[in-house]
Amino acid sequence: MATGTSPRSCLKIQDLNVHYGSSYAVQNATIVLDAAKPLSIVGRNGMGKTTLCNAIMGLLPVTSGTLEFHGIDITSRSPDDRAKLGIGYVPQGRRLFRSLTTDEHLRLIANPKANGKWTIERIYDIFPRLKERRTHLGDELSGGEKQMLAIGRALLLNPNLLIMDEPTEGLAPVIVEQVVTLLQKLSADGIALLIIEQNLQVALQVADHVGIMVNGAIVEYLPSATLATDPDLQQRHLGIGVNNTSTQPKTAKAL
Ligand SMILES: Nc1ncnc2c1ncn2[C@@H]1O[C@H](COP(=O)(O)OP(=O)(O)OP(=O)(O)O)[C@@H](O)[C@H]1O
């Protein structure tokens, strides 16, 4: 469920406001994320989606509002604390190091003493391509490989919530399908998902519910099936039809 309360709520955001100077970037956002029900947030460029993610992670100060994670008030917690509590973040653009290898990226995060479910070997099991590219520098990876590495790095922190900002941006269609399948598996494995997507097909495939963000506000929560079958709604809020899968014309980069 996107709104209301549930004993299984893992993330509860109430009336969140974020400003850049005197401009609103997020306005009165309220989100209740159930651990078992992935939620996608869609919207055109510049509507405040990345700002929302950064505020949830504590990377931006909030003007007002509260954030709770599994009943703990995290509104004033540091980004590090939020990560330690179990919120994983895959930021837009992946933010990898050009001069570190795949393996070094993962070893930087992995804690061999932690008893978490995720180890480097398990990351390589789900992404065999990354294993093949373990000695390659961040700079040398394709878009899809970078995305896998960014997801792998987030998983090594053993999150129980994963926030992903445009996970399929710039990926070739075959890689997009792989990312969708992975997200569905992670959800089935018990990881809560909050997915920011410009690719409406992906948003609808991964989550049963979708929040539509317009000018910083989440103006509507809908079952994915409703948005999928309502071209007027897609046109009104996103400026597209579902067959045109992106809310913004973009050229998928080949691998
Ligand atoms: N550091 C910043 N300083 C000032 N304004 C900003 C800053 N970052 C973003 N904005 C503005 O805040 C608004 C929301 O931006 P944001 O990046 O959150 O939107 P978005 O929906 O994620 O867009 P995109 O899909 O292009 O990533 C936009 O008007 C943007 O220009």
Can you walk through the features of this model?
The protein is globular and about 45 Å long. It is α/β, with parallel strands linked by helices. Helix 7 links the parallel strand 7 (161-165) and strand 8 (192-197). It contains ten helices and ten strands. It has a domain at 9-93 and 151-238: 3-Layer(aba) Sandwich (Rossmann fold), CATH 3.40.50.300. The strands form two sheets. A six-stranded mixed sheet has the order 6-7-8-3-9-10, sandwiched between helices. The protein has a four-stranded antiparallel sheet with strand order 2-1-4-5, covered by helices on one side. Helices cover 33% and strands 25% of the residues. Helix 3 runs parallel beside helix 6 (143-155). Residues 11-240 form the ABC transporter domain. Belongs to the ABC transporter superfamily.
CATH architecture of the domain at 9-93 and 151-238: 3-Layer(aba) Sandwich
Strand content bin: 25-35%
Sheet with the most strands: spatial strand order: 6-7-8-3-9-10
Q: What's the total count of β strands?
A: 10
Principal-axis shape equals globular
| CATH classification class of the domain at 9-93 and 151-238 | Alpha Beta
CATH superfamily of the domain at 9-93 and 151-238: P-loop containing nucleotide triphosphate hydrolases
SSE topology:
Elements: E1 9-20, E2 23-34, E3 39-42, H1 49-56, E4 64-69, E5 72-73, H2 79-85, E6 87-90, H3 102-109, H4 120-126, H5 128-132, H6 143-155, E7 161-165, H7 173-188, E8 192-197, H8 200-206, E9 209-214, E10 217-223, H9 224-228, H10 231-238
Parallel strand pairs: 3-8, 3-9, 6-7, 7-8
Antiparallel strand pairs: 1-2, 1-4, 4-5, 9-10
Helix pairs in contact: 3-6
The chain binds adenosine-5'-triphosphate.
